[in-house]
Amino acid sequence: MVEKNNKPIKVIFFDIGGVLLHIHPEKMIKQISTITSIPFDIVKRSFPEDAHDSYEKGKMTDNGWFQSCKNSLPTNNNLKENQFWEAWSMLLGDETDVIDILIRLKKSYKIWLLSNTNSRHIKNEVENNYVFPKLVDGAIYSYDVGHRKPEQKIYHVACERAEIEPERCVFVDDLEDNITGAINAGLNSIHYNNTTQLKKDLKIMNLIND
């Protein structure tokens, strides 16, 4: 899916998880299940969505997030905080081949990150273990700005920090709700499904030639 107006593009925003990084929630859940001997499906169903929303908005400490996850599981579980963080790190996998496209686009456009995420993943994992943070011109993280996609405010903040009008941006994300939020905020958008489709969509938008 491509949504584009006719103004020249200057900035391209990329989501991280599911676009620049493979993510593996099942590995995290399996690890917690193994540690606690709680069945996989129960661990999965117990995930505290409201607390996660607060954590990714920077309104909850790391310890608060751990406690929320531990307390959401059946009582008397033996989950320790260091074990939890080990499992939490397993959510992030390898970089995708979208990195190669990012490098090509960087020659002609400013590249920014726009991600719903948390300080633990960014500071302990992303900044230390991956290449793409070193390639971009800036980053908007939900925990840093207090808003999450698809809330309108995070897209407005992103454009303000990149010093660009929404109509001169393209936003790439794998979640349709986030794409809808971006379009409603005035950004051009590409719904990411796979690298082949992304290249086709970028060609349609005349952002790459081949």
What does this structure look like?
- There is one protein chain.
- This protein is α/β, with parallel strands linked by helices and 210 residues long.
- The protein folds into two domains: 2-22 and 95-204, HAD superfamily/HAD-like (Rossmann fold), CATH 3.40.50.1000; 25-89, Putative phosphatase, domain 2 (DNA polymerase, domain 1, Orthogonal Bundle), CATH 1.10.150.
- It has helices at residues 25-36, 40-45, 49-56, 62-72, 81-89, 98-106, 119-129, 142-145, 152-162, 176-184, 195-204, and strands at residues 2-3, 11-14, 21-23, 92-95, 110-115, 138-141, 169-173, 188-191.
- The strands form two sheets. It has a six-stranded mixed β-sheet with strand order 1-8-7-2-5-6, with helices on both faces. Strands 3-4 form a two-stranded antiparallel sheet.
- Strand 5 (110-115), helix 7 (119-129) and strand 6 form a beta-alpha-beta unit.
- Helix 1 (25-36) runs antiparallel to helix 5.
- The longest helix is centred in the first third of the chain and has 12 residues, at 25-36.
- The protein is elongated and about 60 Å long.
- The two termini are 18 Å apart.
- The model has no long low-confidence stretch (mean pLDDT 95).
